[in-house]
Here is the input.
Amino acid sequence: MTGCIINIDAMVTQTAIASQISNAKADYVLALKGNHPTLYGQVKNWIEQQLSQGFKGIIHSYDKRV
Here is the structure.
């Protein structure tokens, strides 16, 4: 799985699954829904803060396809 990007919907978003993917040297995109309000709020606030600062100091990439 090295080099793969795994997309998983919220139904199977669990730390054990994320660990398995990470241990296999792959990346993942996991869904986060509002039914976990504390984590959802923390992630939302972090993203809003980073957006306002242009993700300064955060290594990231962006890809847009139409």
